[in-house]
Amino acid sequence: MTAQLDLLLTGATVITGEPETGILEDAAIGVRDGRIVHLAPAAEGLPTAARTLHRPGRLVTPGFVNAHLHAVLVMVRGVAADLGFAPSYTPGVPKGTDATPEEARALARLGAVEALLSGSTLICDHFVHADATLDAIAELGLRVHAGWRVHDVDFSRVPQGEWRFDPAIGGDLLRRTLDLHDRWHGAHGGRIQVQMAAHAPDTCSPGFLRTLAAEASARGMRVNTHLAQSRVEVERVTASTGLSPTALLEETGLLNDRLLATHCLYVDADDIARLARAGAHAVHVPKCNAASGRLAPTPALKAAGVNIALCTDTQHGDMVEAMRWALATARIGQGGVTADWQPADVFRMATLGGARAVGMAGDIGTLAIGKKADLVVLDTRRPHLRPMINPLGTLVHTGQGRDVEMVLVDGETVVDDGRPVRADLERICIEADKAARALWARA
After folding, report:
1. Which residues fall within 8 angstroms of residue 212, CB to CB, at 6 or more apart?
2. What percentage of the chain reaches a pLDDT higher than 90?
3. What distance separates the 2 farthest-apart alpha carbons in the chain?
4. CA angle at residue 147 from 141 to 150, to 5 degrees?
């Protein structure tokens, strides 16, 4: 290697996520033009670099892919989790439609910066006011795969138990999504992509689901949806169509390898077989599910060969914590510790599983020469991370998002010393708090 590197990280332990390289002690990672061009033990020699950072006592991992997040919903943090179901279905809780565009921007920046500071280099963020929040999130430097929350149900009536479909609502939200796609898809050097955020099989009528499938297919868009997230959803869809929610997605053309199906709580063996045959991706929400007293059948999904990605959804942005909950809840479901559910399995869900779900496994999800330099540096010089006999096991069982010291996206440092490089963290917190208090006062 003769050309000088842009950045060289040395002295850290690296979890590559690649079976061939595994875990490298005292490693050197070299970055040039946003990609990894050197990855080897330091003992093999160090190339020259414009900037060299020696980081002993640190752990480097691929960036986490948070495959389903509603950043704006930090506004119901500490409240909605104790009401039993999602905020959009719950009376007395502020709704996304209640927020002004300015309030949505402030709240979205808080939710996104929390995810970034906890090591997420890519978030799939969907909600109301996506046109106002996307650029506010993108300014932080992470990858954002965004979309409007799309449905044709009248959500103002859903908290009262009324499901009424209105073509005008669906048409407006679809138009907003396509406008967002035309304006933003591929922006910021490809860091921004737009997904079709079809809300759920019970909030989108069958005809509207077919329309969404056709529009997404025409543009090659990923579809990010909630699937089988409640018994209410299953009962309503089955009563109105005679199909399970999964079967309805299959019948309407949405069940394919571009589908990210979030929750998958109430799926039976036939549904799981459908997901596997279609190559669809299950997006697991372990903490939110468990906090509401429910467990997704992730052991059955994994056994069927369904790719599982990981996310935090609404309650927090810490993917390290999400890995821990994913491991614990799977073991509860299995009734013990097995070889099928180990730290490496949930780590893969948080990294390569998410990369596969968003169609970027060739570029992100593991650390390898040629891949994009999306990486996370965690400070392991802390009591809860010592001794580090098994780096991966220690990270999953006792690590925290707050251990993240540095984050790179496309080789650019976007978090340094635990703080965002591109934004004023204190201002983000103050503005989001003000917006949330205003929403709660109106509610």
Report:
1. 150, 174, 196, 198, 204, 223, 254
2. 91
3. 67
4. 165
Residue 279 near residue 243 (C-beta atoms within 8 A): no
Cα(296)–Cα(298) distance, integer angstroms:
6
| Count of CB atoms situated within 10 Å of the CB of 182 | 10
Q: How far apart are CA 294 and CA 291, in angstroms?
A: 7
Per the CB < 8 A criterion, the answer to whether 69 and 111 are in contact is yes
Coil, strand or helix at 180: helix
In terms of Cα–Cα distance, which of 342, 343, 372 is closest to 358?
A: 372
What is the rounded average pLDDT of the residues 79-94? Answer: 72
Integer Cα distance of 153 and 166 in angstroms: 6
pLDDT tens track for 201-257: 999 999 999 999 999 999 999 999 999 999 999 999 999 999 999 999 999 999 999
C-alpha 264, offset from chain centre: 15
Q: How far apart are CA 360 and CA 121, in angstroms?
A: 13
Residue-level length of the chain: 443
Please state, in angstroms and rounded to a whole number, the distance separating the CA atoms of residues 143 and 120. 9
The H-or-E segment that residue 226 falls in is strand 223-227
Q: Strand 192-194 and strand 7-15: pairing?
A: unpaired
d(CA 193, CA 220): 11
Dihedral Cα 283, 284, 288, 292, nearest 10 deg: 110
Q: What is the pLDDT of residue 2?
A: 57
Q: Average pLDDT of the chain?
A: 96
Summarize pLDDT for 320-331 with one digit per residue, the tens: 999 999 999 999
Q: Kindly report the number of other CB atoms within 10 A of residue 338's CB atom.
A: 11
Q: Where are the beta strands (DSSP E) in 232-348?
A: 259-263, 281-284, 307-310
Q: How far apart are CA 350 and CA 15, in angstroms?
A: 13
Task: Please state, in angstroms and rounded to a whole number, the distance separating the CA atoms of residues 20 and 309.
Answer: 22
Do 28 and 39 touch, CB atoms closer than 8 A?
A: yes
Record the pTM.
0.97
Helix (H) or strand (E) holding 273: helix 269-278
Q: How far apart are CA 29 and CA 24, in angstroms?
A: 10
Residue 87, number of CB atoms within 10 A of its CB: 20
How far, rounded to the nearest angstrom, does the alpha carbon of residue 150 sit from its chain's CA centroid?
A: 18
Q: Tell me how far apart the alpha carbons of residues 73 and 141 are, in angstroms, rounded to a whole number.
A: 21
